[in-house]
Amino acid sequence: MSGDTAPRKIGRGYARNLDAGPFQPMIGSFGLHLRAEHKSPKTITIYTDAATWFASASLVPAGLTDWSQVTARHVQEWVSTLLAGYTDQYANNQFRALQQFFKWHATEDPDEPRRNPMANMKPPKIGGKLVPVITDGELSALLAACKGSGFENRRDYAVISLFRDTGARLSELSWLATEDVSAHDREAVVTGKGNKQRTVKYTYETARALDRYMRERAKHPMARASALWLGVRGGPMTSSGVYQMIERRASQAGIRLHPHMFRHTFSHNWLDRGGAEGDLMELNGWEGPQMLARYGRSARSARARRHYDGVMGA
């Protein structure tokens, strides 16, 4: 993808610009279709955000103005961009979400059939690429960027701390309600894929961070709202809002990361420190062992590098 059409690079990820311009009305119609099909709110967000991100990062900068102008090459270049900045698993997920939009778009109007540019495309393969993790130094710098009093600092510090301790998905953390979190028990009930709930634990440090945030939150004009995370001046934060906050804090800290890397890092650290694989599956909401193989390989690699000097006498 040429420089003028690529999304803004932030290192191991890309900034999520979600301004789709002339492509937004059709994405709104897609969202209406999904609601009519009784899709879960998280599914709707994932599918519509994928289409919005693709349009805003690839189509608008290229000067396109209508979905009929989109070709398979545009999608291929976008997938290549994702593979350069994210894991192959994430690129695969984005591909499949975007695929749902184009399937709907091609058949939305029976009297006006449309071409589906992804009709003959296959999702990127999930290979053996090591998962990117956040270093201790990067995490310390990120939290340091949120140090201080006030609503925004307290909120952002609590969000990042909870990401670090739980490895929750972006949507799971973003959709938390106040009643889902117990500082006393150091537990949170998150709702994952398929609307399945699970309980995750967090440290005393995060419990204190949440307690400080809740004291500030009590002064907010929307304090009676059920959503845990509130905007500085507006209502509940969306997944996009949390994503953009992480980007902003990472930029302030002089580092480059995206929210899903917290999940990578939690899983990597759990296995690297000898945590049981079955426990990690429960904490992460995995129903099968496929993901364990990816994170297990990353943890084994880290242990091997640490033991190198002792074995080789360097």
Task: Characterize the structure shown.
With 314 residues, the chain is mainly alpha-helical. 54% of the residues lie in helices and 4% in strands. The chain has 12 helices and 3 strands. The chain has helices at 24-36, 41-59, 72-85, 88-107, 136-144, 151-166, 170-174, 204-217, 239-253, 260-272, 277-284, 290-312; strands at residues 181-182, 187-191, 197-201. Strands 1-2-3 form a 3-stranded antiparallel beta sheet. The model is unreliable at 1-15 (pLDDT under 50).
Instruction: Look at the helices and sheets and give the structural class.
Output: mainly alpha
Helix run count: 12
- Major sheet attributes: 3 strands, antiparallel
Strand order of the largest sheet: 1-2-3
Low-confidence stretches: 1-15
Order of helices and strands: HHHHHHHEEEHHHHH
- pLDDT averaged over residues: 87
Distance between the termini: 43 Å
CATH architecture of the largest domain: Orthogonal Bundle
Count of distinct structural domains: 2
Counting DSSP E segments of at least 2 residues, the number of strands comes to 3
Roughly what fraction of the amino acids lie in strands? under 5%
